C-alpha cells in the first residue's frame, strides 16, 4: 500500500519519491522491533519521513494520507474551506468503516481467542 504517494508522483511531485519496505504480516514481520519503532500498534501501513532534520513517524492510513496531503499541498482543501469539512468527513468515514471489513478481519481470523 503506497497511500497517496503514487498519486503525488503522478502529479509530478518528485519529492514524493519513497522506498517501500515489504512487511510480511503472515510471518510476523510487523512485530519486529524495527517496525514497531514506526508503528507501536504493529499494523501496516506506516511511514517514516526522513526528509527533514528530524524523522517523522506516521501510522494509521488516515493520518498518513492527511500528513502527505498537507505536506505536499494536494488533495485536501485549505483550513476554512467548506470542502475541507466534506473531505475530512469522507476520510474519517473511510477510517471508521473500512478497517472493520479489511484489517479488522485479520484480528478475528488470526488473533481473537474465540472464533466469531
Ligand atoms: N486502522 C489501521 C488498520 C491497519 C490494519 O489493520 N492493517 C492490517 C493489514 S490490512 C495489518 O497490519 N494486520 C497485521 C496484524 O493484524 O497483525 C489503518 O487504517 O492503518
Describe the 3D structure.
This protein is mainly alpha-helical and 116 residues long. The chain folds into two domains: 1-75, Glutaredoxin; 77-116. It is 44% helix and 7% strand. It is built from five helices and two strands. Strands 1-2 form a two-stranded antiparallel ribbon. The longest helix has 20 residues, at 82-101. The model has no long low-confidence stretch (mean pLDDT 91). Bound molecules: glutathione (GSH).
The CATH class assignment of the largest domain is Alpha Beta
* Low-confidence segments: none
**CATH superfamily caption of the largest domain:** Glutaredoxin
In DSSP terms (H or I, runs of 4 or more residues), the helix count works out at 5
Strand order of the largest sheet: 1-2
Instruction: Classify the fold: give the CATH topology of the largest domain.
Output: Glutaredoxin
Structural class: mainly alpha
Assign an overall shape.
globular
List the domain count as a whole number: 2
Strand content: 5-15%
Helix-residue proportion = 40-55%
Rg, Å, rounded? 16 Å
Mean pLDDT: 91
Write the H/E string, N to C: HHEEHHH
Distance between the termini: 28 Å
Largest sheet geometry: 2 strands, antiparallel
- Hetero ligands: glutathione
Reported CATH architecture of the largest domain: 3-Layer(aba) Sandwich
Q: How many DSSP-defined strands?
A: 2
Short description:
The protein contains five helices and two strands, in the order ααββααα. The protein has 116 residues and is mainly alpha-helical.
Keywords, please?
Glutaredoxin, 2 strands, binds glutathione, mainly alpha, two-stranded antiparallel ribbon, 5 helices, 7% strand, single chain, 2 domains, 116 residues
